[in-house]
Amino acid sequence: MPPPKPGTFYSLAHRCSSCANSSIPRRAFTSSAVSRATPAEPESKPEATPEAPMATSQIPPESPRYIDIPIQKQIKATKAPIIKGALPVPRNIFVTRSEIPKHTEEFIASATREPAREPITTGQHVAKTKYKAKLANIRRRSLRVGIANLHRRKERSDSKWATRGATRQEAQRALLSAPEPLDEQLTKTSVIKAVRNLMRGPRGRRTDAESTAIKRWNAERRQMMKTAERNDQLHTLYMHARDFIVTEEQLASKIDQVFGTEDHPADFYGHGGSTTFGRSIWAKDAPKNVSQMIGLRNQTAIKTDATVATHHRILKIAEELTGGKI
Hints:
By secondary structure, the chain is mostly helical.
């Protein structure tokens, strides 16, 4: 089914007298209405410019420009291009294994030496030889010029970054040493001087001489504590040295006590014929039974435990009073 022919909503008969006599062009909903309304006019499309907007009769209703809205002249912000990836850190080309700096004339002359002999001017390969000599001259000239230009760029870059760093450091020092701004002084909470001194602490009221004296006293106190601890350790070692085995007689006596003698060896159960106990823990001292562990013991056991506990307590008190190991 073919599409219907475009037409207008209102005909000339339905138009009022003021609209019929008006010279304003009638807005149509299709672009073909213009050609039917003015058949005698030449078909020419005026260009739509900001100074001369397009006629409303030529704009279809589905266009966003159907309603005339003034457009403000604005400068469009340009976006920086997105660079994908990361560039490597540039290499310092002036670091060489030679003691001679690369930018000096001596290094450049050594790197771009002239040929030892003159090129061949006769023969079959004269053209090829001349061409290679020409390329060699170009390479030598490019190396000299490139090193000089790169060194100038490096000096200019180093000077730029050094100046920038010094300027920023100077600005930071100026900001750190600047007094408190007037707006902060006028808007901050009022605090009396006594409270401010208390919040700053005692360090804010000390002078340099007082701080130095306190630091010296702390250092001396730490040194005294280290000396006292070292002396205590030395005295403890001396007291424990009473049980050290330092002679062969003491070693033989300890061996006989632990392992027994040839006549009376120490067996596992302590029945070697002597009063020495054996290697078993059961031969020396029996473990406590259940009654003793839950507190149902006789007065002798309680008295013995109390005596041992009192002895250890008295020994510890004596060590604290004498200041050394007993």
